Each structure stands twice: as C-alpha cells, then as structure tokens.
Amino acid sequence: MQKTPSSAIGGLPLARGGIAIIAGLLIAVYSSSICFAGTDTLDFKPDTSGSITTWLVSQPFAMSYADDFDKDLLTEFGGEANVKPDGLVTEAKDADGNLRRIDWRPMFSDKPVVRPYSRQTDSRAAYYMSCMLKPQRSGDHILVTHYWADVIIWIDGKQVISGRRRGQELAFAEARVELDKDKQHHVLVKLGNCFSQAYVNVRLLNVDRGPARAACHLPVPTSQAALAAYLPESLDMAIDNYLFFEPDRSARVAVTLSDYSGLPPGLDVPLTATAEIYKAIVKDADSKPQEKLLKKYETRKFEPHKLRAEPFTFSYRLEKADIAVYYIVRLKLQADGKPVGQLERRFYCIEGIEEFGHNVRKRAEKFYKEKSDEEIYGNRDLAYLLLKLEEVKLLYDTERGSPTFGDRALEFVLDAEKYLTTMEKRLHIARGPGMHEFAYISRVDDSAQPYYIYEPMTYDPMAGAPLIVYLHGYARDLNKINWALFPRDLQQLCEKYGYLMLAPFGRSNTDFQAIGEEDVMHVLNLTMRQYHVQADRVFLVGYSMGGTGAYTIAGHYPDRFAGVVALAGRPSYYIWKQMEPQSLQPFKRWLIELEFAEAFAENYRHLPLLALQGEYDSLVRTQQSTRFTSRLKALGYDANYTPIPGSDHWIAQEVFSTDRVFEWMEKRRRPEAPPKVSFTTVSLRYNKAYWVTIDALAKWGLRATIDAESTAPNEITVRQTNVGAFSVQPHEKLIDATKPVVVKADGKEFVFDAPIKGPLKIVLQPGKPSNLRKKPSLCGPFKEVHNERFAFVYGTRGNPIENQALYKQAEKAVREWRDFVKAVPLLSGDKDILMVRDRELQDEHRQKYNLVLIGTPRTNSVFAEVAGKLPIKVKDDGKQVVYVVGNKTFTAAISKDSGESELGLCMIYPSPINPDRYIAVRSGLYYGDGLSINHKFDLLPDYIIYDGARDGGVGDWDGWPNYSRCAGFFDDYWRLDEDLMWTQEPSTRKVARPGD
C-alpha cells in the first residue's frame, strides 16, 4: 500500500508544522483521533465513550412490511454477513446476470448516535454500515448498541447482536466478543428504517465496561478529489437570524458544520471561500429560472474545525427592486489554491412568493368570474386549480416558519400557474394511469376539497374495474397539504389486482361522520360517474379513524358496498370511553347510536367484514374488533377478525405488504337482490337498504328495525319495530311484476295489483295533519345544519357592546368551522360567505341557505321575524334572557360588560321562510369552548339549553360539552314532546372555562 508523504495529507499541506498524524480533533463533547495511513485508507479511534462514529454506509435497500428483518438482502454478494467493502463501490451479478452494486458513503459524525440522514427514505428499508476494528489487547470485549428501529451486528461474518424496535424509544442490546489485537475485525451493522427514522450507537467496551482502546479503519479514498466530495455534506449554510431574505433588511448568512455530520478528516486546515448571491427569475413551471448575479464577496479564509464556535458569515441587504421568489448562494471552497468542493443553498423570499402567487390568484379570479355556478361546481379542473391556490394559503397560515416552506410554496404556485395556463388555452387536462389528485368545490362553503384516485394500467373503460374506497387515519395537524396517508404498497396491490382506488379527504379529522361522511359519499358518486366502476365490487377500507368511519358509513349505506375492511377501527363508543350506556342521558345515547356501528349491526347482513388489529394495539382496544365480529357471527353474518401478531396500532403498511386483503375481496360481491333485508336506524337520515325503505318512524327517539323477506312467489313478509310507514321495491328477480304482490306486516295483508310499477308503500301508523314532518333531508340533529349551504347570521339590533359580542361569536363560529373542515376562503373577496349581518340578508340566503341565527329576537332582526313560529320561545328585555320550553322556563342575566348571558340555546328547526331549509339558533352563551375542534357538534340534539359548567361522563380526551339544563328532540312533526325532553338541575360544580 502506498504511503502518503509526511508533509501532506491527501495532497493537502498540513496546518500545524507538517505533522503527519492529526490527533485530538475535538468536536462538541466527543473527541475522535483520526489520521491517514495512505491514499486509500482512513484510520481513526473510537471517541471517549468507546463509540464508533465514522462508518461506511450503504444506500437504503427496500423492504416490504411483510419482510422479516432477518431476510438476506445481499445474496448476490455472498450473503449480507459476508459483505466486506474494499472501497466506495461493491459490485456483483445476480442469477440473471444483472449487475447490482452497493454504493458506500463515508459518514463522519461528531455524535455517538449515528443517523444515516442523507440517505434515509420514507419507506421501510435497511442500511449496511461497515468498519474495520483492531483492539489494542486480545481477549473478551463487550459490544454495546443502542438503536431505534431494527438492528443486526456481525463481527467477521458471525452474528453477535440482533434487536428489534421497541416502541418510540432507543432499545439496548450487548454481546461479549473475543477479539485479537493482531487482527483487523470487520464490524457490519444492518440498521432498519422505521417511520423515516434510523438511529444506532455502537460502542466497544472492556470487560470492566470502560471504553476499550482500539483503532478503526475505513478503505476510502483520501485524496483531494475525495475530500472535495465529502466536504459539502459536512457543511451547512443558513440565514442565522431568520429563515428568509426580506426586503430592506440585512440577512446574515452563516456557514457552519452540519447538525447531522462531522468534519471529514484532514480538513482542519485553512480553507478559502468565495461567496456569490444570485437572484432567480421564475416565470412559469416550464421555463428554467434565469440567474442574475447580485453580489460577489471577496475571497476569505476560515478554519473548518472552528465553524461551530466561529461561523463563516457574510451579510446581504435585499433591495425592493430585487425581490424574487428565491436566491441562490454559492460558496466556492479551495485549499492551497485548489478547489475542494462547492456549497450551494437556495433561500426564499416570502414577499417574492406572495407576489408571484398573487398574480396567479388574480388571473384565477378573473377566470372564475367568467364561469356559471354549474361550471364552477361541476368542473373538476376548476376545482383542482382552486385547491392549489388554497394549499398555498394553507402553507402561509400553518408552515410560514418552516424551513421547507419556500420549496413547497413555490411548487404549489407553479402547479397552479401551469394548471391555469392550460385552462386559459381551453385545453383539457388529461389524466392517465397512476395516482392523481382531484378536487371538487363544495356547495356547502365554496371550498375545494381534495381526493385521490389511483388508476391501474389494466383499467379498461369498457370492462370496468372494482373500486377500493380508502379512509385515512387521524393526525393532529392533518390538512390539505399533508393528508395523503394511504399505505404505499396499497397502490402496488391495486395494480396487481386491477383495482381503482379512491382516497377521500373527508374534511380531515371528522371521523368520517356528518360532513366527513357527506364528503366520502359525494366523491364516491363523482368517481362512479367518472370511471366505469363494477358496482358489485366496491369495497370500503379504513385505518384507525378511517376504520371507525368505514364501520359507520358501511352501516348507514349497506347496499353500496361489497365488503368492509376495518383496520384498528372503533365500532363501539362505549368500549372506547369505557362506560355503560345507562350512565349517559338518553339524548346522548341516541346521538351515539346514530354514528357508531355497534348500534346497527343488523345492517351488516349482506356486508362482509374483515377486521384487522395489532395484537398489542395501544390506542384502540382489541375488544372493539373481537366483540363486533363476534356479534355479527352470532347473527350468522360473514365476519372475520384477524389479529396481527406482535404489532401495535400502526399496522396499515404491514397489512398491505401482503395480499391477504385483496384475496379476501376477490371472493366477495355485493348481492344484487338479496331475498332478505334487515335494517336498523334511529333516524330517517339513514333509512334504506337494497329494496326496503323506512318512510316514517312510529315514534321519534326510539330505534326502528325492519326485516323484509321474500317468503313465497310475489309475497313479502315484514317484521318491524317502531316503523310508522315503509316502502318495498323488490327486484325483478324476487317478484313477477305482471302479477299482484302481497305484503304481510303486523298481521295484515296489503295487496298491490299488477302491473307493479315503482315502490309499494305501506302505512302502518297513519300520519297526522301537519305542514311539517321529519323526512330524510330534514330531521336533525343540530349538526345537520352544516351539511348544506349555510351562513351564520349575526344580529345588529342590540347596543354596541352586544353587537360587538354577536359579531365576535359569528367570527369565532366561522373560524372554528373552517379550521374543522379545512375550508379556506379565497374567491369571496373581503367578506366571508359564511357570515352575514341580519340587515344584509338577501333573498338568496333566505331561499337557498340554512341560516344559523346568532343572538335573540331583540338583537337579531331575522330571529325576530321567525321567533313566533319556533317551538322554543326566547324572551329578552335587555337585562335577562328567558328560554321557554313548553312549561319550563330557564332564566339568565345579561352582562352589561360583555353582552352575554350565563345560559345558551342551540336549536335546529325547519325554516319558516323556506321549510325545505333549516333555521338554527345559537343564542346566549357560546357553546363548545371546552370541546376539541373536531367534536363541537357530536352531542347536540335538536335543541339544548346549557350553562358553562362541565358536563362529565363522556370522555375527556376530546374535551367536555357544556352542562345541559334541558335537551331533547322534536317529535316526528317537529313538535315538543315531554317524552323526548331531558332536564337536569344546575350543576353544583363551578362554571368551567376553556382549558379547565
């Protein structure tokens, strides 16, 4: 082996008297002695704790979540245990003669815990780390490792440590190993990647557990060219007083050592650097940005090993005339007059991005103004353009301080500009096979709501394809720019089996209930129109929160799906909250039964279920899956529970790394005409399955069940509870429409003469004369007001203090709604379409909107207009407010200082202005300050009078509702009913405040 002359290292002159060995290089707390033994070797010592911090690290090798970590990924190289790099590239041929290679990269760390940060991937993968080790004494040593994810360690091809990830913390393993001081031992580490992270610490100790003395060796080039390749990764550049260039403000650019990497050996010599700043002129997505030199700095010297304490800095003041989207800062490095690499960073200017985005938005606004309502709500390209603009605003609102803000904002703006330019040219935006993001503009709030569709290469519009509807899990900060949480391998399986996949946003963290459920069903209908979907092969699949949504939606619409796959979902509220139903007031039980599948298990008669859950799920009790599937099996239904051995809650990637779900779906089809149909509901909102519809309940507030069966030719037998009227429309496979049909129910026979056309309606309990009756589109509870176009109407008839309070309540309600459903206002100008003054209410609002009235009849003119036609009366003399519910009254004083009272009313009722729309009332004390943003309306019935105390007993993780003084449902005719009203005496607890 060639030796490097003593006067130089890798072609570089030494900094301290030409000493051939650089010792005691101190970085942070840890030290590492490093030297060159030749032009192609790097020798160093473990740090003072015995940790080996410098390694050769391979590129990531992909693994599926079904793969065991012990799987040999390097069989072509003689097996992973035997891989021993002799340079930066190791090559071998596989069985087919294809060349495979391992690209090794030196990783210099100044921390004992090593992270292969520059090579990490979001997918599951394994990395190999190599180092040669020579101890100073022979005999037993202790090899210790702390790791996050999975790890295997070999010494000279013999496995000495094997460990697996344990939760979210560093795990520990050690082994006693015998080493020979006259031999170089090869240490090879296989490190797993989990959740985009991989960490490992490897230490060599004496038997007395003190740091062992040893020398380490890497077979890597140490020439000037090699150092030039290593150096840029070890340095970092940032604006150290803020993140972006700002006009008329000086930015100090600092060059320092990277947080994740140490300094390449041999570079504790003086370097010279020349800095240049360029302005990037960005026009559109298709043109390469032009660069304009703004400033060039004089060449300066610095010492790399001193950068942590003494950063290399230079300042630049941005003039307004030079505002651009971003700037390029280049640092050209030299040693002894020869180049040793170049460091380049891009720094953004928020004002520049804002200006660029503003121009695109102005063009878009002009474009939208030329379109009719039908074009806006029906054109998916227009919706996608609006989505891109909303995403930019979301970035400004949520990630403005993030280091990645500039990259993402520019990407979104350029995407929007490219889309807009295409549409301005009247060109169609074609989509082909692959994953594509779409959007629709919601008629509820004019927001763009996204969804993804995966189209397989094998999709044939003539033959059609089966469809998976995949519902994502919960994430606290979920929004339109970070919600694509579907498993990576799911796309590959869709391709393999020829499935379309639809992934709805579901308005973020809605549990896919109420407005979230509306989103899912809307995009499902859009997809069914956009693609040729095989209607008998539509499967609902959900993970975690999405699993809960899958249970719920499938039970509400059992005739839309061929099967349900629920991963770690919750069909039971009571298992979730660990309580008994009897501990809750009846109106709360009704609201829970409306949404949680355990209450309507009968609806799964023709709906196969596959429930999967980690054996050690720490977030959702496995009882959720076991109890529900056991109940369905007891009913004779197709239900299976599959535990995932050894796994926690996060099983989506693992489940879809195998074919098990698709093999299960391949065997199932939605029946076209089942001879027997069962359906259970508490509300007409969900009243239909296959050929049976519940048209009216006998008594509101109680469960209604119906079993309809074809028991003989042209004979239908019906058994029911609490059904006032129903319809049957049997499929042609079940009846002969040219002959009479007999329907037997409640011991009576209803004969329908031939020919049979349309549904057969049976009234078991005749209705009463009334202008109002609950129906599927108008039956409450309170949250239904938000499922169609609505506006908060705030009063302006009170005194200035009261008017200000009502305005703030409306503003707060709008803010909470937009935060809840991620509805960004863009094209409505200065005024938000979701709030309007009472005196500015237009005829369009009256006829087409659900109106949420904020105030009292005294303070809100629209409330005064309809107050006499509402069943709950509100009296307000300016000093106190009185709520009258039948023969019960509830009185609260009005504060002179705040204009608010200590009681509040929420109520929903058909609008006296247009009985096909809702009027909702939010009067007095603001409701829901103690509740999380995504559970504000869960426990609101048709009406509730409440105070500010905390209503316990419903679970605390999502907050607490206001204490109900009187709550209930209107009956089938929207009248007060004592049997559907529940009251409580005032709470003895103090009034709770937000944050209590």
Describe the structure.
With 996 residues, the chain is of the alpha+beta class. It has 6 domains: 41-220, Jelly Rolls (Sandwich), CATH 2.60.120.260; 230-353, Immunoglobulin-like (Sandwich), CATH 2.60.40.1930; 354-428, no CATH class; 431-666, Alpha/Beta hydrolase fold, catalytic domain (Rossmann fold); 676-763, no CATH class; 782-983, no CATH class. It contains 16 helices and 54 strands. The strands form 11 sheets. Strands 3, 4, 5, 6, 7, 10, 11, 13, 14, 16 and 18 form an 11-stranded antiparallel β-sheet that branches. A hairpin with a 2-residue loop joins β13 (151-155) and β14 (158-163). α2 (350-369) packs antiparallel against α4 and α4 (380-398) runs antiparallel to α5 (405-424). Residues 1-39 have low confidence and may be disordered.
Question: Which features would summarize this protein structure in a list?
Answer:
11-stranded antiparallel sheet, Immunoglobulin-like, 16 helices, alpha+beta, Jelly Rolls, 8-stranded mixed sheet, 6 domains
How would you briefly describe this protein structure?
By secondary structure, the chain is an alpha+beta fold. 19% of the residues lie in helices and 34% in strands. The N and C termini lie far apart (72 Å).
Give the name of the CATH architecture of the largest domain.
3-Layer(aba) Sandwich
Beta-strand share of residues: 25-35%
Runs in which pLDDT lies below 50 for 5 or more consecutive residues are 1-39
By DSSP (H or I, 4+ residues per run), the number of helices equals 16
What integer value in Å does the Rg equal?
34 Å
Average pLDDT rating: 89
The CATH class designation of the largest domain is Alpha Beta
Please describe the biggest sheet, giving its number of strands, its sense, and whether it closes into a barrel.
11 strands, antiparallel
Share of helical residues: 10-25%
Number of strands: 54
Global structural class: alpha+beta
CATH topology-level fold name of the largest domain: Rossmann fold
CATH homologous superfamily descriptor of the largest domain:
Alpha/Beta hydrolase fold, catalytic domain
Outline type: globular
